[in-house]
Every structure is written in C-alpha cells, then in structure tokens.
Fold this sequence. Notes:
Elements: H1 3-11, H2 30-35, E1 51-55, H3 56-72, E2 76-77, H4 87-95, E3 101-103, H5 106-114, E4 119-125, H6 129-141, E5 146-151, H7 154-163, E6 171-176, H8 190-201, E7 206-212, H9 223-242, E8 252-256, H10 262-269, E9 279-283, H11 295-299, E10 315-326, E11 329-332, E12 347-353, E13 356-359, E14 363-368, E15 373-377, E16 388-392, E17 405-409, E18 415-420
Helix pairs in contact: 6-7, 9-10
Amino acid sequence: MRTEAFAGLAEERVDHRFKGLPPDADGLTVGELTAQRRNLFAGAGGFTTPVLALSAERLEHNLALMETYAVRHGLAFAPHGKTSMAPQLFRRQIEHGAWGITLALPHQVRVAREFGVRRVFLANELVDASALRWIAGELAADPGFRFVCYADSVRGVELMDAALRGAKRPLDVVIELGAGEGARTGVRTEADARAVADAVARTRTLRLVGVAGYEAQVPGADPALVRAWLERLVALAVEFDKAGRFAGADEIVVSAGGSEWFDAVADVFAEIPGLSLPVLKLLRSGAYVSHDDVHYSRLTPFNRVPEEGSLEPAFRLWAQVVSRPSPDQAFLNAGKRDAAYDLDLPVVHVVRRDGTERPATGIEVSALSDQHLWLRTEPGADIEVGDWIGLGLSHPCTSFDKWQLIPVAEADGTVVDYIRTFF
C-alpha cells in the first residue's frame, strides 16, 4: 500500500473539522496528537462530548477472528470497505489476510486506489462512462491492479463496452444473481444470467470471470432459503464453466457473504466441485470490523456457531447529560448527527462520574432529535447533569459516516490512534 498516503494522514492538521477532539489540540498534526497519548476522560486538555471512540482491543480481536475464520474455511476475504471508508482499517484488514477490499461506488474505489489497494471487488454494475474510463486508466497504468465488478443486465454490458473501447486490458465482470423478486439488484433468473453472459462474450472489452450475489436479500431469509439461493449461485458457476463461458479467465470467482449469513456461505462454498480453473471463494462481510451492540450482535452467524468465537462491539459513543428536567427524563448532547439510528436506537451501557464508571441501571434511549438524545429514566436511576454516558450503537455502516476522525482508545481511555474516514 502507499506509505506516503498514510504519512499524509498523520501530517493533517487538527482543527474545527473534527468534532470531539480536545480544543487545545488545534494546529497539531494528527501524528503529534497521537504521540501525546491523551486520555478520553482527562479534564484539562480532554476530549469534548459527544465523541465516538473505537476500542483498540476489540478492534484487534475482530480483525484477528475473521482472519482465522476465513483461513479455517478456505475462503478468500474481501471485506466491504463501504462500512468504514477508512484506509487505515483497509490496511489492517489486508495485513490480517484480506485478499482485497469490496466497494460499492467509483468514489470509494478512488479512495482505495489513493492508498494503494491492489485488489478491488465492486459489488455493483458500473455503467458510468467517466468512472469506467478512469478504471481503464488504472488498469493500464498498474499491471498488478485487479478489479472485478458486477454485470446484471444486457444494457449494462453494452454501456460498459461502449465506454471501454480502446482500453488496454479487459474489465473483469461477474454475473450478479439476484436473491429473488423484491430483492435488490441482480438478474432474476438463470435465463437472464445466460443472456448477460452472452452479451459479455460479444465484447472485447469485458471478461467473464465468475458469479456473485448477496444472500441477505433473499426474501424471508432463513437458513434453508439462504442455502437454497447459494446452491443456485454455485450451480450457475458450474453450468457456465461446463459451457466454456470463463474462457480467458485465470480463476473462477464465486462470491457472496454479508455479515448475517457467512456461515451458510462457508458451508455451501465448501461443497463447490472441482472446476476447470482454480476457484476464488470470495467472502465480503464488512460490518465485523467494529461489529455493533444491537443489529449484528443479534444476527451474527457466530451466535449459531459459538464454537467459532464471537465478535465484540468496538464502538462507544460518549455524550454528556445536559438536562434533567423531570424524574423520568434526561437529555444528552448527542443526536442524529452523531449516532446511527436507521435500524435501532443506541443503547445505554455506563454512567461515568468523577472518574468512576458504573452500569446504567434503569436508563434507556427513547428517541433522538438532531442534536439531542432522549433518555427515559426509571425511579431511582442515578443520573445527573454533567455525567458522561457511554452508549452502544447499531449498524456500523451508518456510524462511521458521521465522524471524520475517530479516536482509537485502550480500555483505560488512552488514545493510541485516530482513524480518518472518507465518505
């Protein structure tokens, strides 16, 4: 990866753009602030609320756990980078064995390339002519750059082909098999898949290298339905291989795997028969890097296979009680601008007062406003104006995007790094 790009992150100046950081840090570089190893909870020179922090220990645990999982099950791993859009985390994921990074949009690919990511799986059909020409330029300039994207329509193939005329290297595509009627993108039937594959074969600019999809979109998803869809995906790869549709490919890509059903992906992909080329069994789960306290804590496959280990929620949002207008209400100085709320409300974990933390008994989040978080408090709940409240969040994908510079803190509050995001 590009060392100079990461060095540039450390040289960026701390200022008003980055919320939650100590006010007296203005003018320091991020590297200088990191070297000071400040504490989240220090008084003078401390951080301001609200502030989102990542647990250093839990982050490392999650990275290592998924590396072990992928190796154990013979899977290549391209975690979805749209979760964090943080090149520092991309680098750590790759250091922990990731094949590459999955992304969704051309802008995200530009970020990844700026920081030297060599392998990108784009989980979308790419039909923007300007973006396609830029990708063609990246492929021409860097023989080591591997880029794969979806194709899910004949029209899309035609648009890709038109934009890529004259490109020096063909663009690798995989046919996206949709998860059924009412699901998201992807061809709905095997006949549609064959038609798209035929369209790819008629071009000189595209090369068919595999099949892919997203199993969590299966309507009414349960273990049986998800497995049935994954078996369809594998059967499509086998059919295409027997028909010689992967001629010219170096390997056959078979890819699936969000953060809810990767156990089913591992089981079905383990049964892929021998094909005419090596098979890249590519898992794309992304939310694991921070995990969460509600949505994925409830749905993670590790709940079904606890012997494989368990992910740990790494985010904690700290906010301060700014109002206690009645015995059953309190308000924090954080809201929709700071906390994910699209799937579940934040959950209250701890109350911090005078340097001491205790469980937040009898306190729960009831609503969010733009800049206030509403708490419902039971009789006798010990909470007062000025307390710091530690909250768990749901859905990493809408937590990272609200913070441009995120402190990484050890268990005692010592900040050892800052994660820069690019949304």
